[in-house]
Design goal:
Strand content: 35-45%
Structural class: alpha+beta
Distance between the termini: 53 Å
Order of helices and strands: EEEHH
Strand order of the largest sheet: 1-2-3
Oligomer: single chain
Helix content: 25-40%
Largest sheet: 3 strands, antiparallel
Number of strands: 3
Length: 79
């Protein structure tokens, strides 16, 4: 009986204000058969540091978090 745990980013969504919703799934496999799956969600704003995120999340953030999006977010939230 071999148990394995995998954590994967399975959903990346962007919002109009530049925020990015990220969902990760923790999958437990027993002999390569999924026996459990749980989810965790977090939000990245245009002013957040994304350097510790998954490479795909970083790529989306680079594309979405342009200087104009960051400036608009800062203005809207008095940052």
């Amino acid at each position: 009986m071999a148990l394995e745990e995998k954590v994967v980013v399975d959903s990346i969504n962007t919002l109009e204000d530049g925020c990015i919703n990220v969902r990760t799934a923790t999958v437990i496999l027993k002999d390569d058969v999924e026996i459990s799956r749980t989810f965790h969600r977090h939000v990245l704003t245009p002013v957040d540091d994304t350097s510790g995120e998954d490479a795909r999340v970083q790529a989306v953030a680079t594309a979405v978090h342009t200087s104009s999006v960051v400036a608009a977010y800062r203005t809207a939230h008095d940052l």
